[in-house]
Here is the input.
Amino acid sequence: MSKKHRIHTYALLTFIGAVSLLLTIGSVKSAQAVSFTAFLDRAQEVAPGGMSNSPLTGSAQLKLAETAGIFALSFNITFDSGFDFQNFGAANPIGGELVTNLHFHNNVRGMNGPVVFGIFGPSSDLDGDTMATLNVDGTTTVTGEWDQNEGNAGASLTNFISALQNAGPGEDAPLYLNLHSENDPAGVIRGQVSAVPEPGTLMLLGSGLLGLSGYNWMRRLQTKRP
Here is the structure.
């Protein structure tokens, strides 16, 4: 390879790496605030009242999406087989801890806050898209959407869109899920909603780093040649 060709190669690799990293940086804010997760357990419950000894857990995946200028937060939450959602159409044949309520609350981790969207008991869902399904392994999955105009006690999703969009990867949003049961009416397991990066963001970052790595490799190779 001629010296001139090598210089052009360096320039191209540098350009690819720089553009990829710039695209990553530009997309991080929007991508990382789209998808969210929450892990529900007893350790996140906060006194008074909201403490339990239950070993059961839950796991949630959530996504904030905009359609024709209207936002909705979809949720898919799976709970251990020890819970019984019979009050909400998904009776567990072996019984279990009887679920009485499931809500989104507004506050930071470690602090109690008011209900801002009722999934079950009572429900803030206006269009009936929330449902509980008993799975073959005995777990229960709850799915639905919190639409922009829906909410509880004067709050709606509109109040939280900015906070959700601006949460960085791994950062908490000011929302948590709280599951209530007959044995623990104030809350049996709780999980804070946290932002996660989209796969596309990670791919862009990887391509940028790959381009810069290629540039460094070519540069080292050049220094070894006369």
User: Anything to note?
Assistant: Residues 75 and 134 are 16 Å apart (CA to CA). The longest helix spans residues 3-32. Residues 11-16, 18-33, 200-209 have pLDDT under 50 and may be disordered. The chain has two domains: 1-34+198-226, 35-196.
